[in-house]
Amino acid sequence: MTRRHQWRRVLLWAAILALLSSPFLVTFLPHREARSKELSPSELMVKAAIYANESLVELNKALVLDKPDAESLAMDSVAARNVSEALARRAANTPDTGLAGFLKKAMLAYADLANASSYTLVATPRLYEGLLEARKALIALKECKVDKYLELYGKARAKLLEADKTLLEALSLLVSLNESYLLSPVHEEIAENLTASVAAAAKTIKELEKLYNIVKSYRDTIEKLCQGRKPSPSRLQGLASSISKLNPGNAGPLGYEEAEAISHILSLMKGQAQCNKPGAGSGSGTSSAGSGEGGRGGSGAGYGEPSSDD
User: What gap in Å lies between CA 210 and CA 245, rounded to an integer?
Assistant: First the structure.
């Protein structure tokens, strides 16, 4: 942390302590009897950090296919949104200058953090459910069940895209968040880690979408390969070019399954190429069709089988 950053944090704490003990608060807080029923700005900021940490933990669980409690997260999402709105209201009634100005910026930063947490808590169960269904789809693709893959991923896709939209809302708030106005290094670390996890989840969905669009576009070509038939050279070339742009490392918890599916398609393409060589035996075209092992040196390289099949 830079010296300037440390000094700003000292000023923020000074602002909170000074304002919370000063009659000046009546200029931007409700009347005394109403205040007794509401959390103070400092309590609201702590609440925002708590919800941010919860959203980080739950999102990371979903990213390793650990089932979240959807009902609990839905309630906490509403609570986090309420905290965000309360902080925004307090900030709107706080002057922009002096110590009050520092406090105002802190409240706005925590309001954004709580709001991003609310979005993340909503997205997490949808992401989890979509990933589970997408995993089944990838297994079907590896087994050359192209129609089954498209059917299963079609079900997963609605949930994944819905989660993606919400995650991008959270990410927009997080990347614009001025972390120097957070009152604790721990809160700053939570915000940074939440930003990274939300970005990773969005990247996972984007990668799965790329594969889906390729399979959808080259459905006939992949089906012919699976059947040991010869697709047109131009279609094969287009399929190979599209596959080369995939990166299973971006598929998060489904990186292994995507790599295996890609590897199998590549092995079929390799077998077709061998079959097309002059003098090749008539049975060589489908010799590798039943195994995804032969293509691991390509897009699937580096992805070992998981230690457990959850």
Answer: 9
Give per-residue pLDDT as tens, 185-241.
Answer: 999 999 999 999 999 999 999 999 999 999 999 999 999 999 999 999 999 999 999
Report the candidate in 75, 51, 205 with the shortest Cα–Cα distance to residue 128. 205
User: How far is CA 75 from each of CA 51, 86, 276, rounded to the nearest angstrom?
Assistant: 11, 17, 60
Q: How far apart are CA 8 and CA 182, in angstroms?
A: 10
Contact 274, 230 (CB under 8 A): no
pTM of the predicted model as reported, rounded to 2 decimal places? 0.79
Distance in angstroms (rounded) separating the CA atoms of residues 254 and 140: 13
Give the gyration radius of the chain's Cα atoms: 26
Name 149's Cβ contacts closer than 8 Å, sequence gap at least 6: 137, 138, 140, 141, 215
Distance CA 92, CA 127 (A): 34
Give the C-alpha separation, 218 to 208, whole Å. Answer: 15
Q: Count the neighbouring beta carbons within 10 Å of the beta carbon of residue 252.
A: 21
Q: What DSSP string runs through 241-288?
A: HHHTT--GGGGGGGHHHHHHHHHHHHHHHHHHHHHHSTT--TTGGGTT
- Distance separating alpha carbons of residues 109 and 115, to the nearest angstrom: 10
Query: Which pair of structure tokens corresponds to residue 182?
Result: 């957070």
Give residue 97's pLDDT.
Answer: 82
Q: Which residues, in sequence order, are CB contacts of 92 under 8 Å at separation 6+?
A: none
Half-sphere exposure of 81 (CA within 13 A, CB side): 12
Contact 25, 116 (CB under 8 A): no
C-alpha atoms less than 13 angstroms from C-alpha of 147 in its C-beta half-sphere: 1
